[in-house]
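We now fix the convention by which a protein and its fold are recorded. Think of the row as the fold of the chain written in a discrete alphabet. Here is one such record, which you should read through line by line.
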Amino acid sequence: MIGLSVAVGRFVEALFWGIFRVAGAVAGVLILGVVVLIVAWVVARKMWARRKL
């Protein structure tokens, strides 16, 4: 009975770690995407300002 309890506990722990890993990866991709968009916007603004002159 104790072995089953330990197995269930380890399964739940592994499940939570998997969920946190996926959530962390998604958050990392979103942050990277936002940074890329901001850099692209700044570069586009500089190019547009240079073109007007």
